[in-house]
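seq:
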Amino acid sequence: MRLLAPQLEFAIHAEQTDAIDPDEAIFQAALKRFRPIMMTTFAALLGALPLALGHGTGAEIRQPLGYAIVGGLLVSQFLTLYTTPVVYLALHRFSRRRARKVVPRPVEAAIAAE
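struct:
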């Protein structure tokens, strides 16, 4: 079962196996995943265009659904391509900063030494 977006899986895998920094890993992942993401979005977008641009009997009922699908696809495309790498890098920097701040307390260090 997949828990992460494929773009993040590619970045984490590249970071671990190729030992590259997170900036380069997410950049490579974005380049590798760009085409499949765009193909999927455009396929769904082209499928929804007849709803949004339709005419004829009952078109006024279906047009809002088409507009919602097209708008949702455009917003999700923006979120996928732009904010996913930004959030990934921000979380990586946060976790690195937090890992540096974790210092054992003197009591815990004394117990560990015994």
